[in-house]
Design a protein that fits this description.
Helix 1 packs across helix 6, helix 3 runs parallel beside helix 5 and helix 7 packs parallel to helix 10. The chain folds into two domains: 242 residues, Rossmann fold; 74 residues, no CATH class. Strands 1, 2, 3, 4, 5, 6, 7, 8 and 9 form a nine-stranded mixed β-sheet that branches. The protein has 362 residues and is of the alpha/beta class. It is elongated, with a radius of gyration of 32 Å. The protein is built from ten helices and nine strands.
Length: 362
């Protein structure tokens, strides 16, 4: 019976779209066009819901009214926890979600962590200086919470359109004139958590472009996983602009489940003890004690010149070092192998001595 090998099938039954750009580039309007088009083409019945941080819902509400679509809005928060609560509720009650803007939510997530961190520091030490910016070790809990949202975004059984501001991509480039490295902008991306920009199956950059004295809202298809629209540009896009992408999806069919249902915890059962300390660390400590005990047994535990010399030579021969500190830092496998070598040598030497001491018989 095959456990992992299954015939490939289309499993993305819900559109997952990302739209980013500067203010006034047409993000919200494009999201509206896509939402209405999805609702009409695939004969969806439930309302469209918007998590609105701009707020912008008032300006697009007439489009949904004209299309005969019930339009629900939550515009009272920029908190990630509220977005996830909204998302789970909308997944049951609605057909499509619009989030505008995910950039606000990402910023609030970072700011909230800093506030919580400083509140905690203040409780523990009233004189503690506030932390003004995130440091490297702060990102792990923030990223972990955001990963929960990413999984919800991808695996939820609802069409989702997420809008965000455009952010710059920076890189260092050598100045040919003075030879110095300079920080330059080399492109744009969605201003949100770094990995979020890779998650949508359709990622669109909106650009406000002036041409022949008028403003044009131009869509640049940054990524299309169906490879039907990759790299193409469209002015004043609507749903039909991106229809080839949605036609490829398995809309109305089976959607993949959360990949968070399975993990690799079972691989580490024997590496972490019940009290939380790493199993490997304890094994190293145990083997170091075993080696010391063996030295006592074979008479190499003393501090006499000859004893110490013989012990150091034995350490060097077995472990490649005369430093006991270096031996203690070795992994448990190396320590176990070294212990076995010392023990075997002692036993062989002991047997040899016994044979030499046996009385000679004619």
């Amino acid at each position: 019976m095959k456990t992992f090998l299954k015939k490939a099938e289309r499993k993305q039954a819900y559109a997952k779209v990302g739209i980013y750009g500067d203010a006034g580039s047409g993000k919200t309007r494009t999201a509206t066009e896509i939402a209405i088009g999805l609702w009409q083409k695939y004969d969806l019945k439930k309302p469209v819901a918007m998590f609105d941080t701009e707020p912008a819902a008032s300006y697009i509400m007439p489009f949904f009214e004209n299309a005969g679509i019930d339009f629900y809005v939550y515009d009272e928060s920029r908190a990630l926890k509220d977005l996830m609560g909204f998302w789970r509720e909308a997944e049951k009650e609605c057909s499509i979600i619009i989030v505008d803007s995910i950039t606000h939510i990402w910023k609030d997530c970072q700011d909230s962590f800093l506030k919580q961190l400083n509140d905690s520091r203040k409780r523990n030490n009233p004189n503690a200086r506030p932390v003004w910016q995130l440091e490297f070790h702060h990102w792990k809990p923030i990223k972990a919470q955001w990963a929960n949202f990413t999984d919800l975004f991808l695996s939820s059984k609802i069409h989702a359109i997420v809008c965000g501001r455009a952010g710059s991509i920076y890189e260092y480039q050598k100045n040919d004139e003075n030879g110095k490295m300079e920080l330059i902008t080399s492109g744009t991306k969605m201003a949100t958590e770094k990995e979020m920009g890779y998650e949508p199956s359709l990622l669109i950059e909106m650009v406000k472009h002036r041409e022949n004295g008028r403003i044009i809202n131009r869509a640049l298809v940054e990524k299309d996983r169906t490879d039907r629209l990759n790299g193409k540009e469209f002015d004043f896009p609507n749903f039909e602009t991106f229809a080839p992408h949605f036609d490829f999806l398995n809309i109305g069919g089976k959607h993949f489940d959360s990949m968070e249902k399975s993990d690799s915890r079972s691989l580490f059962v024997n590496d972490i003890s019940d009290d939380g300390f790493q199993h490997e660390k304890k094994q190293r400590e145990i083997m170091c004690e075993e080696i010391k005990g063996l030295f006592v047994k074979i008479g190499l535990d003393g501090n006499g010149v000859d004893t110490k010399k013989e012990r150091l030579e034995l350490l060097e021969e077995v472990f490649g070092t005369r430093s006991w500190t270096a031996v203690e830092s070795m992994n448990s496998k190396s320590l176990r192998e070294g212990f076995a070598k010392i023990k075997t040598r002692y036993e062989d030497k002991h047997v040899k001595q016994e044979k030499e001491n046996e009385p000679v018989t004619n």
